[in-house]
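note to self — DONT lose this again. spent like an hour looking for the file last time. sequence + predicted structure for the chain T wanted, 168 res
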Amino acid sequence: MQQAFSAMKYLIPIVVLIFISTGCQDEVTSTAVLSDTDRLIQRALEHELDTDYSPPPGDALSHHAAGFAKVLCSVVFVTGLEAEFVAENIGYFSARYEERAKFSKWSIHEDDKCAEVTLPNGIKGQAVIIPSHDMVVVNMSPYKGAFASGEDLKQAFEVLMAAIPENT
């Protein structure tokens, strides 16, 4: 009996060690070691399409400016919040704070229901709200100088609004 007990004394730790090293190893490395960010990236890679990445045309700062102008326009004219509050607190999914700091200036034009963002190179982008159609149009044309609200812009909006039916 004494010999059986001493053999069991060595056998139990060996069995436990084998169980831990083989059965639980995959679970430990796949969940406990990976951070939330790593798990998110791993999940995204599982669903990624097998296509070549092609970034959108234009530079990233122009895209951030367009997003910022759109957020400014939508939030200021739809919710009525103050423009300074909106610029400081809302819409970081479209233009991060670091990117917003690069814009030369931004402004709100109450009469035209428009937000305008100026890039460091002088190019201005506009977002104009069209309440009758519940939409915001963003224009990141490479123009410099005065606000582009002349006859050309009005004609472009008339063509756009004629093509899109009003909400009913």
